Amino acid sequence: MDFKENVPTQFTPIEDMEKKAAQEETAALREGIDHHDYLYYVKNQPAISDAEYDRLFRRLQRLEDVFPDLRTENSPTRRVGAEPVDELVKIDHAAPMLSLNAVYNKEEFDNFHAFVRRQSGSRHIDYVLEPKFDGFSVEIVYRKAAFQYGATRGNGRTGEDVSANLKTIRTLPLNLQHAASVPSYLSVRGEVFMQKEGFQRLNQERIEKGLDPFANPRNAAAGTMRQLDPGKVAVRPLDIFFYDILRLEGAFFSSHWEALRQMEKWGLKTDPHNRRGASADDVRAYHRRLSAAREDLAYEIDGIVVKLDSYELRERLGTRHRSPRWALAWKFEPKEDVTILEKIVVQVGRTGILTPVALLQPVNIGGVTVSRATLHNADEVRKKDLRPGDAVRVVRAGDVIPEIEQRVEQRGKKRGRPFRMPSTCPACGAKIYREGAYYLCPAGLACRPQLTGRLVHYASREALDIDGLGEQTARALAEAELVADIAYLFRLTPDELLQLDGFADKSAQKLYEAIQETKTPRLDRFLYALGIRHVGQRTARILAERFKRLDRLKEATCETLQQTGEIGPEIARRVHRFFRQKENRQVLRALKQLGMQVQSMPPSTKPRSLSGKTFVFSGRLKHYTRAQAKDLVEQQGGRAASSISGSTDYLVLGQNPGRKREEARRENVTVIREERFTEMVRTG
User: Domain of 678?
Assistant: First the structure.
């Protein structure tokens, strides 16, 4: 059977196959799939359609499912099939993975060239010139043409085994082409990287999920390669170029150029920009050419690599402790200020505000690599007339937050389409609405980017008071995708919590119990916990006392809400919109199904003797937190404010009060101590 040229439209039914026939077909399928992977990913010359390739791949999967003992570690189906590991294992390299000395100008390169000529005793020097990738260096080992293992560079002598992650990269062959010509043992060095387009797409996905984007493609590649779960690596857009042989057995090469050409024949992808140079002028011209073309390349480079071609001459020059004397990296001038705006994506903040974000070709500003910049709001984008593909000047506002200062004119270049804010939330699909200069997503309870902030607020002391659920744990739950909305909290098990860093049996059980104990909250605390915009503790109490039950409040109209004292049209619209939002109603239904029973507000048994009185607090109180003092005032029908005004009745002084005492005197506000405040709330 040969699947390199033809793909049959029908196969023999697997249930009718003998073991030997299945074994022969499985081997042929693997060889055919490897061949087509090589044509597609390395040669960029596909010979069959995607549908035909998928037919071969599915057939191999079915055979391996029915005959599991035919599975091999280097089968194409195993690229995504490895189990997560607990830790990365250390592994010694076949040969040292050296660093390169870097030079930054023509004079430094000329010094290197003069050194090589002196040491070689020859005026004619052949170089191999390669792009210097801004990626992540790895060693790959093949035995008898089959992938054996792969490791990170580490300290140059010992790295970490990332074989399962490397196998997910489609451009890395698991079985080399022309196996008969491959040495029995082959160790090669490669660079794992992300193409610019894939990097921007990954950052867009992270931003839309409310996660921090990667600073640059190199960080993204390095962070991905050290993941413990190959399944998560497989969805990342990784690629690899090979550029050196570290060690081999059963073959010999006299020059680096010869080795590169042979690596290509084996199916190891090399950079098409590799060139030979026969003089210093050739090297300088190559440096100028790639420096000018770097913005147009599909991947990031930060210089060129200059290597002696002759292996015999390399031996003569030798190596230093960590770098060879026969090669160097000639870096480009760092990109400053001006870069390309690749994409404008929309980020959903923790409060539901949608903010346009510029994804940039990474640029160095003051020693910091910048790959994104805030655009504040849609009006700002329109005002500056920013579009994908524009050249832009970037500044670090206050030397911290990157911003786009202005668009840089590019004469003769066709511009992209004007940016438009989406009509639905990019994260959850809810229909967004506009409020002044801002666009907002109303699906607070079910929108993933808002999730961390929602969880923290929901668990706060003033809300449902879930001990152990702070910002760090909330972020970990969201990133591990254990929680998609607040209802998921009540589905969590102690075993799932053990997946999070820092959790042991006792702490996982404790948090689980703390969550379960909040299934019967009082209505006002539950309303506050929902995080409805503009609904603080006092407003939540007013609504709870007016409507008594959650079901009644959920069905209230804007007009009914405004009939409640102190509830104006803006708060009424917010509350009404929140409870009308489909996603929020789904979460509330899920909470009820999971056993949540919101308690009606009990009738007040205490005289509400502070009704109509406004209190402000200054300084640290001895017997109350600020939230507890505020709660006491509101229980008695009063109001707690944060600043002094003409309507303030009392300023309560704690330890180390601030300037509010002078403000109170100017406004003729009564100033009392904590002891007097305690007496007032106790006795009225």
Answer: 614-683
- Token pair, residue 249, equals 């057995």
Quote the number of domains for the chain.
5
Phi-psi region of 371 (alpha: psi -120 to 50; beta: other; left: phi over 0): alpha
132 a catalytic residue: yes
- Centre a 10 Å sphere on the Cβ of residue 116 and count the other Cβ atoms it contains: 21
CATH code where residue 412 lies: 2.40.50.140
Say which of 4, 19, 20, 132 is annotated catalytic.
132
Residue with tokens 């940016």: 419
Q: Check residue 426 and report its DSSP letter.
A: T
Q: Report the predicted TM-score, pTM, of the whole model to 2 decimal places.
A: 0.65
- Tokens found for residue 663: 């403000």
| Structure tokens given for 563 | 């009939």
**Number of helical (H) and strand (E) elements in the chain, helices listed first:** 24, 22
Q: Where among 385, 417, 441 does a domain terminate? A: 441
| Confidence (pLDDT) at 210 | 72
Tell me what pLDDT residue 81 has. Answer: 61
Cα 587 to Cα 272: distance, rounded to the nearest angstrom: 53
Model pLDDT, residue 374: 84
CB neighbour burial string for 654-682, b if at least 16 within 10 angstroms, e if fewer: beebeebeebbeeeebebeebeebbebbe
Per-residue confidence (pLDDT) for residue 377, from 0 to 100: 86
Dihedral sign (CA 109, 112, 117, 120): negative
- The whole-number pLDDT of residue 604 equals 60
CA angle, residues 255, 91, 189, in degrees to nearest 5: 25
Of 254, 222, 250, which is closest to residue 236 (Cα–Cα)? 222
Which parts of the chain sit beneath pLDDT 70? 81-86, 335-336, 366-367, 397-401, 603-608, 684
Is 51 in the same domain as 127?
no
pLDDT value for 283: 97
d(CA 318, CA 327): 10
Contacting residues for 287 by C-beta, under 8 A, at least 6 apart: 109, 303, 304, 330, 332
CA distance 53 to 7: 8
